[in-house]
User: Fold these one by one.
Assistant:
Number 1:
Amino acid sequence: MTQLNRLSLQNFRNCESAQFNFSSGLNLIVGDNAAGKTAIIEAIWLLASGRSFRSQQSKQLIRHHTDNCVMFAEIISSHNTEQVQKVGIQKSLEQTNLRMDGETVKTHGPIAKSLPVQLLTPESHKLLEEGPKIRRQFMDWGCFHQSEEFILCWRHYQKALKQRNHALKKKLPQDQVQLWDSALVENALKIDAIRQAYLSELEPYLVTFCQALMPEIEIEEACQYRAGWPKNTEDLLKLYQLNYTKDSQLGHTQYGSHRADIRFKFAQQEAINVLSRGQQKLFVCALLLAQASLHEKVLNEPVIMLIDDLPAELDEAHRHKLLELLQILKIQHIITSTSMQLIPILNSETTRVWTIAGGSIEQI
Ligand SMILES: Nc1ncnc2c1ncn2[C@@H]1O[C@H](COP(=O)(O)OP(=O)(O)OP(=O)(O)O)[C@@H](O)[C@H]1O
Ligand SMILES: [Mg+2]
């Protein structure tokens, strides 16, 4: 199974130095407010995704009065348990160095592929509340892991979009704007097909986990995918041509994969209008569990789930239910809490607990 075996941190946030030897089941990190719990989750997420969920600036991540931070992890692969992969990130104010098995890597893609990590934080309900970017990130996480083609199409698309928007903004001649249309269309259609296929595979899992976590809610068709252009569009290239004048007035490209979205509906109504705050959090849990199960089915490897401040997320019964599902699905989970009493230990053999205070950790 894919497992985060070891984690080592240096000068990350308030943590001078920490080493974790994780178990395959529940890994619980307990500490008071400001102890450094979120920092640990943030460091793992940064290793897995290449970015923090709290701050874009390296300065904030590096421990005060030091000049660089290091995150290093050992991953055991699901396909070859003998094989240990080593991944690391070193960040200074000026640069970021990525390492994988002793070699420098240029992009974060290979590290992200080998470390499929999902994240639940007290902010996760924003997936329903905020703009479409966070929902696209959710959907594209799955597309990235399941489709070899996706990342290439996405890079080509982004490049064409950037050039087209640059030409629009600088008011360059029409032919220099439209030069990019065919690359945009070609890649948008591929991205669209991958996203649609992904969501239709995900949907039955989502229904199952919604029923497990919120049996009180009736759910039929939960996801409605929006491509990023009008539904009845038959010819995307023509749409770009027809919208050239509007695009040049706006100074950017209106339609495309960068505008895609997912709408979540219950009984014909937007999820956000029907679900309580707690139910919204449960719905996000169901989305992540659905994604984890589909990932396991397609790639034959489990994901690793990070949950920051679990008690802030869910009440006692739902905490129990979620932990039970994680155990049944054999998902390694790394969870933080301000109190140990709030986390039921369902299997002591696969559980490890640490306390954290002032950035220093101790295993108990
Ligand atoms: N670059 C940094 N250098 C040193 N300390 C930092 C740095 N960035 C943040 N901190 C401090 O690290 C501490 C830990 O923050 P963190 O958010 O990880 O705590 P937490 O245990 O998750 O707290 P809470 O329970 O309130 O969510 C905070 O006191 C914060 O001020
Ligand atoms: Mg925190």
Number 2:
Amino acid sequence: MERKIYDEDHEAFRDVVREFVKRYATEEKRKQWEADGEVDRATMLAAGESGIIGLSVPEEFGGAGMLQDYRFRSIVLEEVIGAGQGSLAGAFGIQDDLAVPYIVHMGTQEQKEKWLPGMATGEILGALAMTEPGAGSDLRGIKTTAKKVDGGYLVNGAKTFISSGKTADIVVTFVKTGEGNRPDAFSLLILEDGMEGFEHGKKLEKMGFHGWDTAELSFTDVFVPDANLIGGKEGLGFIQLMMNLPLERLSIGVAAAAAGEAAFHWTRDYVISREAFGERIADFQNTRFHLADMATTVDVMWAYVDRAMELYAEQKLTAEEAAKVKFWATDREAELLDIGVQLHGGYGYITEYPIARAYLDARVHRIYGGTNEIMRDLVARQIVGKR
Ligand SMILES: Cc1cc2nc3c(=O)[nH]c(=O)nc-3n(C[C@H](O)[C@H](O)[C@H](O)COP(=O)(O)OP(=O)(O)OC[C@H]3O[C@@H](n4cnc5c(N)ncnc54)[C@H](O)[C@@H]3O)c2cc1C
């Protein structure tokens, strides 16, 4: 079904992304990123140069100024994931959906001037650290503290599962600056690589997304200057997270739709080319019914996700609507990839095939950014409240 959200500027940008993918996202590079557990900096710099990252950074700081227009980011996800390069798409997303928005939307003028130009070029890579060994879904249960001292804060604690935790130059870090777990007891601080007492721990071995790192972080009396308090005011951290989470969840929904569509294309091409019992796999009725279902699911997914992108552009995408998109799209993605793997037979299990990698990558879409159970709970609260 024809999608209606793109205009000529978007399609011209798609050509830029395709060119980038052809030149930089080669199979050789993919294998290198997976072996290293990270995308090399030269590729991130090339993405900055091509304008593929830093899309939401305002033009005055060297970005594309696409603050509320997620369609350009969607094109990056569609093209990069469609080329079987899920890890590269993830590395771009950590920068553009997790780190950059906090500084663009909530940073002080000084913070914007200091970090945004480098984030647009890829010279400065960011990460977002909320989760701790003892607190993920229940973020108000975090234990990392930031104690006020003269000129700044002393940070102590630990974070885990942090995407780009090893490679990031700056980490937007969720900390406790007050007592108890009231929303105003939390703040966001920017921790910089190299600060004394800030250790990037080991890279964690993951099921999928082998081409970007996920790491533990630890903080021992790390002095963080007042200038690194996001927004310049204490006690806003929880609200700031809540403000950005709809974007993070929309981004996962878009990635899920892109991977679901890619699953359909890879599967269609495979079943046309493969034969068994003297027929194409595509000629068996079971395959044909699945293909029809897949194609329809992809159409419905995009119709829904595209509407969410429109609402985001109008600044009307609520937390509940973003939660619905996140859990629904990632559940459909899982179904599409599962049937895609099945129709590939044994080859579907071999990670040389993009369908196998995408299947492994997709599993975390139902876990991070808020688990799909938490998403359903959020939606249910709006429907029936909570005692
Ligand atoms: C590869 C990867 C990358 C990640 N990247 C980042 C990152 O960059 N930054 C970051 O901060 N975090 C990151 N995370 C962490 C991720 O966001 C958390 O793992 C996730 O939010 C779940 O938290 P948890 O692991 O503590 O699970 P828990 O909260 O312990 O949940 C365990 C199970 O209980 C269920 N559950 C919990 N509470 C409820 C409830 N109220 N009702 C019903 N069910 C419930 C959950 O849905 C889940 O099924 C990443 C995780 C992974 C695996």
